[in-house]
Amino acid sequence: MIWRRLLVHSDSSIADLHHFIQIAMGWEDIHLHRFTIHGQEYGIYRCGGIWFDSDAHQLKLHHFGLRRNEKFRYDYDFGDDWRHEIRVEAILPVENNKTYPVCTAGKRAAPLEDCGGVEGYLERQQDVPLQTVELFSQKLADQTAWSEDEQDVLRDLLPWLDLECFDRHAVNRRLRLYAEEDEAWLFAP
């Protein structure tokens, strides 16, 4: 299971929550998305995408009256069909000395963008270590320099080699930039 635990302020908008999730998963926000809360769909409208009745930038989380253990859904990339269950674990008092949002925990690296959904992810996950070993073995045996094409292949394979790795500190750096309204959050590693 791949998961993240975030502390967010109830004054955060649906648009903010979408960005928090994108940051926490390490995604690039290049696909359509939607939240389904209390049977209604919400999200940020994109030209040619889903039309939403409410402005995601104006609709705050506290408007939903969510309770402890209540769940709702976040779908991302309708081609790969990533479905996330969002659960309110607790409703806590605001700590004045804390910056929100903050990621407090998580497990495993998120699937890469456009990897083919759950089936593509699982298939690729099994194939990549073998492809990488074969590539390294061939290069070691030949004792030749890496061509540019081989370097590109290796760069594509490397993120798949450590799927257990989740860097909470990197997520929090980007969340902090977002909270400070610094657009560097879009590009920060």
Characteristic terms for this protein:
2 domains, 6 strands, single chain, Structural Genomics Hypothetical 15.5 Kd Protein In mrcA-pckA Intergenic Region, Chain A, 189 residues, two-stranded antiparallel ribbon, alpha+beta, globular
Write the layout of secondary structure elements.
Blueprint (H helix, E strand, L loop, with lengths): L2 E5 L6 H12 L7 E5 L2 E3 L28 E6 L5 E6 L14 E6 L9 H26 L5 H14 L6 H12 L10
Q: Give me the CATH fold name of the largest domain.
A: Structural Genomics Hypothetical 15.5 Kd Protein In mrcA-pckA Intergenic Region, Chain A
Number of helices: 4
CATH architectural grouping of the largest domain:
Roll
CATH class of the largest domain: Alpha Beta
- In CATH, what is the homologous superfamily of the largest domain? MM3350-like
User: What is the terminal separation in angstroms?
Assistant: 23 Å
Please tell me how large the radius of gyration is.
19 Å
Uncertain segments of ≥5 residues (pLDDT<50)? none
Shape designation = globular
* SSE string, helices as H and strands as E: EHEEEEEHHH
Count the E strands.
6
Strand percentage lies at: 15-25%
Main structural class: alpha+beta
Helix proportion of residues, in percent?
25-40%
Q: Spatial order of the strands in the main sheet?
A: 3-2-4-5
| Total individual domains | 2
Rounded mean pLDDT is 87
> Major sheet: size, sense and barrel closure?
4 strands, antiparallel
